[in-house]
Specification:
Layout (H helix, E strand, L loop, with lengths): L1 H28 L14 E2 L2 H11 L3 E6 L4 H10 L3 H4 L6 E6 L6 H6 L7 E5 L5 E6 L4 H18 L5
Parallel strand pairs: 1-3, 2-3
Antiparallel strand pairs: 2-4, 4-5
């Protein structure tokens, strides 16, 4: 029994010598959870339904961001583009939603908008009609230009208010 215990103990120590550094490294390089946004980010809804509901109430177009915590371009957009000075002027002009593609609750919306690559950013008018999309990352300035163009499209595609 002592030899067996000694072998098991040595085996466990060997495994732990490999696992602990790997887990530590993963913790350091794994991006934050989808709900963790840098200071200065727009207020993100957590569901497609709540974003559409807010858009209908406010009359604002929607920015649906399909993303994942393991996606480097998604995390770059999250950390450097959405909270940027160039994009900041558009924060209050849209309803924003951040939808993690790994969350089963977002599967229906992902299929509806044909998400096959991320980041996939779908732009909708206030009634929920698609007006544009972007697949892939961009600079803050390019994304701000996209938002300006979407505002124009969304204004012309939304029914006139009475």
């Amino acid at each position: 029994m002592k030899l067996r215990d000694s072998i098991n103990s040595t085996h466990n120590q060997t495994i732990m010598r490999f696992i602990v550094p790997i887990l530590t490294a993963l913790a350091l390089v794994t991006p934050a959870f989808a709900g963790d946004f840098p200071k200065g980010s727009p207020k993100f809804e957590k569901s497609y339904r709540s974003a559409i509901s807010d858009a209908k109430k406010t009359g604002k177009p929607v920015v649906l961001v399909f993303s994942a915590s393991w996606c480097p371009p998604c995390q770059t957009m999250k950390k450097e583009v959405y909270p940027s000075a160039a994009v900041k002027e558009y924060h209050d002009k849209f309803v924003w939603a951040y939808l993690d593609v790994d969350d089963n609750d977002n599967e229906k919306a992902s299929k509806e908008f044909g998400v096959s690559g991320i980041p996939h950013i779908q732009f909708l008018d206030a009634s929920g009609k698609s007006v544009d999309k972007q697949v892939g990352s961009s600079s803050p300035e390019a994304f701000a230009g996209k938002l300006a163009a979407v505002l124009k499209k969304a204004d012309t595609s939304a029914p006139a208010a009475k």
